Amino acid sequence: MKFELPTLPYDYAALEPHIGARTLELHYSKHHQGYMNKLEKAVAGTEAANADLEYLVRHAEGEVFNNAAQVWNHSFYWNSMAARGGGKPDGNLTARIQRDIGGLDAFKREFAEIAGGEFGSGWAWLVESPDGVLEILSTTDAENPLTDGYHPLLTLDVWEHAYYLDYQQDRSRYIEAFLDHLINWNFAQHNLGQRMARAKAASATA
Ligand code: FE2
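Above: the input record for the complex with fe (ii) ion. Below: its predicted structure, written as tokens.
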């Protein structure tokens, strides 16, 4: 299987003024593409070259894991944002956030705290735990919650390259812009729906 860098789901200027076109261009065409290039080099001539990307995120280690996870994480991150994002979730996600996190305001507070508190480079995530509870967590470097059996619903890249041109060292303003203007609740809802459909299919065949 040949790994493919997905097309960015919007143009470079689509998220302005919250994320500048230059940031997105560099982030996608240099960083994301760079991880893909390194992944292809690392797996060339090995069994991993035929593996599914998600399989590598769940099972690979070292350089292959780091680059596979960074490819997966960035693709997921692009979809976690939308040009007219922000606002409120709808559907059953609203009820789940209320039940598990205490509502949208509590979600925003906790997400900002966890994303801001990740020391150094990493990612902040809304996930569903293996027990079916929504949680907010952060991971370091390339780490991905799939490895621990969590189901990601959305993510925010908190590596400095994601926000430095627009916000310099001020990560908190970037997080605030994400939560208020960019977050793509439809994508999170879609991911939650997929998870529920999979759980239903599994219990029907059990
Ligand atoms: Fe990044």
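Notes for the reader.
The chain has a mean pLDDT of 95.
Residues 6 and 75 are 7 Å apart (CA to CA).
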